Amino acid sequence: MSAAGTAAAVQRHGKIHPRTARGIYTRWRWFFVFATQLFFYGMPWLQWGGRQAMLFDIDARRFYIFGLVLYPQDVFYLAALLILSALLLFLFTAMAGRQWCGYACPQTVYTEIFLWVEEKFEGNRAQRMRLDAAPMSWNKLWRKAGKHVVWIAIGLWTGFTFVGYFTPIHGLATSVMAFSVGPWALFWVLFYSFATWGNAGFMREQVCKYMCPYARFQGAMFDRDTLIVTYVKKRGDPRGKRSKKADPLALGLGDCIDCTLCVQVCPTGIDIRDGLQYECISCAACIDACDEVMDTMGYPRGLIRYSTEAAIAGDWSRRDILRRVLRPRVLVYATILAVAMVVFVTSLWVRTPFKVDVMRDRATLARLVKGGQIENIYRIHIMNATEQEQVFTLGVDGLPGLSLAEGSPVTVVVAPEQSTSVPVQLRLPYGGASAGSHGFDFIVSAPAAGSVREKSVFFVPQ
Predict the structure, then answer these.
(1) pLDDT(8) > 70
(2) Phi and psi (nearest 5°) for 96?
(3) How many Å apart are CA 213 and CA 210, to the nearest integer?
(4) Residue 278 falls within a domain, yes or no?
């Protein structure tokens, strides 16, 4: 949707002031708020072997994930990790709907935090609505200004932390304290600070409804057995207000008292009673609100609940719902994910923590040297991806009689996370092979890092 379309939608629906919900699902949402932010804000400060445990160092072109060191040549591992995350999201969505959006999505998490700050400064839903409608006054000014000061502080800390994943955070903190932050680091800190402040403070549900593509994907991933937040229409309708002592059957009413609390607590402003809508993020705030009303009225809980379309239509029990979890779609997603994870983990497990490139000296293909031997010259580039100094041993295999020339390095010492290139001369007795190119393997090994075979060719002139 264009910016004009988004603005028109905001104008049409007005600002949403979500009411605070209370209940088990609200507690779960706050659990995930604390868990995700503890990880996000704390991880850059965690040390591992004298350096940052998780660091995507753009300047040094190295990615550190605890004991794993990745280089730009290993970018496919990061791509594979993103693919695995997407597959996991597809699997989870097919089973449990958009609960990722409702509990752990950064947009949801920071909106919850910003709404909490807003409530502390401006009061509950009714008080916030009155304050917005009131003319400017000292009371309104200090409450609005105080809220934004805290919002901006949270945004700045979030931007600083985010940049701390891409540049060593201790050095970044020192630069900030000394007012000597580099221009690019400062730009990204301010950019992500502004994005946090704008998305969580102002755009809120507009991000979920009009900007996030995941809301549109859900139609392809949902089926009648996907767990969603649903209103039990045949139990709740016809809706109508009544006293607590009234008999709804005598009045010809369902259990819904039309209090609209489910709408008031919804962060995207929808009415769940209208059925499944793409704006629903499965946060279950409406379930908590409705259960509280049902308790007050003395009715059974579950008028709004997590269920499936098939379960509502067939009056299934929880056991019946669980039986439909392992259906073909879920099994396909789970199988693909399991195979991909096995391949990914195996690839990391057998990965050799150094890389070798062999380049032939193209200026001199081959030459005859003393002793009646044919010599080819190569340059071997060794990249040590470990965090310890390694001593590499060079050898050759695959062509009888081929050996390293006297004076060529047999061992190469490479510092931690560094690379070294060395020239190597190989010799073959004259007549040891026919004229032409002959394949062989360079063998580079280290006691603590394994060995690598790198193919090359030896040229024998006519």
Answers:
(1) no
(2) -125, 15
(3) 8
(4) no
Shortest CA distance to 312 belongs to which of 221, 233, 220, 219?
233
User: Residue 343: helix, strand or coil by DSSP?
Assistant: helix
Residues in the chain: 462
Question: Residue by residue, what is the 3-state secondary structure of 197-264?
Answer: HHHHHHHCHHHHHHHCCHHHHHHHHCCCCCCEEEECHHHHCCCCCCCCCCCHHHHCCCCCCCCCHHHH
pLDDT digits (tens, 9 = 90+) for 170-190: 999 999 999 999 899 999 999
Report the pLDDT value the prediction gives residue 15, as an integer from 0 to 100. 84
Structural domain count of the chain = 1
CA nearest 316: which of 405, 385, 224?
Answer: 224
Look at residue 7 in the predicted model and tell me its pLDDT.
Answer: 37
pLDDT tens, residue by residue, 112-170? 999 999 999 999 999 999 999 999 999 999 999 999 999 999 999 999 999 999 999 99
| Exposure letters 162-182 (e unless 16+ CB within 10 A, then b) | bbbebbbbeebeeebeeeebe
Q: Is 391 left (phi over 0), alpha (psi -120 to 50) or beta?
A: beta
Q: Tell me, yes or no, whether 393 lies in a domain.
A: yes
Instruction: Judge contact between 31 and 295, C-beta under 8 A.
Output: no
Assess whether pLDDT exceeds 60 at residue 284.
Answer: yes
Boundaries of domain holding 456: 354-460
Quick one: pLDDT at residue 57? 87
User: Do 293 and 263 contact (CB within 8 A), yes or no?
Assistant: no
Q: How many CA atoms are closer than 13 Å to the CA of 9, on its beta-carbon side?
A: 15
- State the Cα angle at 155 between 153 and 158, rounded to 5°: 110
> Residue 71: which residues within 8 A CB-CB, separation 6 or more?
61, 62, 63, 355, 383, 385
- Is 444 within 8 Å of 393 (Cβ atoms)? yes
Average pLDDT over residues 347-373: 84
**Helix orientation angle between 285-297 and 24-42, rounded to the nearest 10 degrees:** 150
Residue 6 pLDDT:
37
Asked, for residue 136, whether it belongs to a domain, the answer is no
CATH number for position 424: 2.60.40.10
Q: Reduced to 3 states, what is the DSSP secondary structure of residue 149? A: helix
The single-letter code of the amino acid at 456 is: S
